[in-house]
Amino acid sequence: DSGVTQTPKHLITATGQRVTLRCSPRSGDLSVYWYQQSLDQGLQFLIQYYNGEERAKGNILERFSAQQFPDLHSELNLSSLELGDSALYFCASSTREQGKGETQYFGPGTRLLVL
Amino acid sequence: AQSVAQPEDQVNVAEGNPLTVKCTYSVSGNPYLFWYVQYPNRGLQFLLKYITGDNLVKGSYGFEAEFNKSQTSFHLKKPSALVSDSALYFCAVRDPYGNNRLAFGKGNQVVVIP
């Protein structure tokens, strides 16, 4: 168990709908990363937050957005869903370890199926 | 841009035999390299990382990886594979210019045959 939690585990919805994925980082971790894993694209970085502020954006669609709240949990919002958005969405959190750099620890993921 | 390549799709190995999963990298600057493992219907589990120092890095579950700067490689190894090691293995490199995001390889399916 990495200490990172994600809800829900599974999500089935229809095209055009909007969903929210939730992530709680490990205790004390300030950074949250979101990744998408799909068969055709592999594991792709979406977006990063650090202590409530957006720090970096990757291959994130304009239909997707995220935020990190004061209690450090994060939400990834996916709207106007398309069939191609079906994927496994991972959250990871990290903290800098003295002399060891930074390690990202991943949650169990949310499997999204768009029908 | 930082990237890693995992040239093989699947690695088959007999139980008890040595296991090697290959990874090569392309980075500007010092490479920060990682190995993660994904079991079916599970998240990614951190195995080990190379930041600096010894070229042989020891990690979880008996795995180790050898950093080779001249060959730009970071191969994952285990002296004696177990059936329970069957999983998807990902090599990743940290992008220090992209706020530490990880760039992952395509993954290697490891099948340990009893």
Number of helices of chain B: 0
Largest sheet of chain A: 7 strands, mixed
Q: Treating each run of at least 4 consecutive H or I residues as one helix, how many helices of chain A?
A: 0
Relative strand content of chain A = over 45%
- Cα-atom radius of gyration of chain B: 13 Å
Largest interface: A-B, 26 and 22 residues
The termini of chain A sit apart by: 31 Å
Order of helices and strands of chain B: EEEEEEEEEEEE
- The low-confidence parts of chain B are none
Using brief descriptors, characterize the structure shown:
heterodimer, A: 115 residues, mainly beta, seven-stranded mixed β-sheet, B: mainly beta, six-stranded mixed β-sheet, four-stranded antiparallel β-sheet, 12 strands, 53% strand, globular
List the helices and strands and how they pair.
The complex is a heterodimer of chains A (about 120) and B (about 110).
Chain A: E1 5-7, E2 10-13, E3 19-24, E4 31-38, E5 42-50, E6 53-57, E7 64-68, E8 74-78, E9 87-97, E10 101-106, E11 110-114
Parallel strand pairs in A: 2-11
Antiparallel strand pairs in A: 1-3, 3-8, 4-5, 4-9, 5-6, 7-8, 9-10, 9-11
Chain B: E1 3-5, E2 10-14, E3 19-21, E4 24-26, E5 33-38, E6 44-50, E7 56-58, E8 64-68, E9 73-78, E10 87-95, E11 101-104, E12 108-113
Parallel strand pairs in B: 2-12
Antiparallel strand pairs in B: 1-4, 3-9, 5-6, 5-10, 7-8, 8-9, 10-11, 10-12
Question: What would you note in describing this structure?
Answer:
The complex is a heterodimer of chains A (115) and B (114). Chain A is mainly beta and 115 residues long. Chain A has strands spanning 5-7, 10-13, 19-24, 31-38, 42-50, 53-57, 64-68, 74-78, 87-97, 101-106, 110-114. Chain B has 114 residues and is mainly beta. Chain B contains no helices and 12 strands. Chain B has strands at 3-5, 10-14, 19-21, 24-26, 33-38, 44-50, 56-58, 64-68, 73-78, 87-95, 101-104, 108-113. In chain B, strands 2, 5, 6, 10, 11 and 12 form a 6-stranded mixed β-sheet that branches. Chain B has a 4-stranded antiparallel β-sheet with strand order 3-9-8-7, with no helix packed on it. In chain B, strands 1-4 form a two-stranded antiparallel ribbon. At the A-B interface, β4, β5, β9 and β10 of A face β6 and β11 of B.
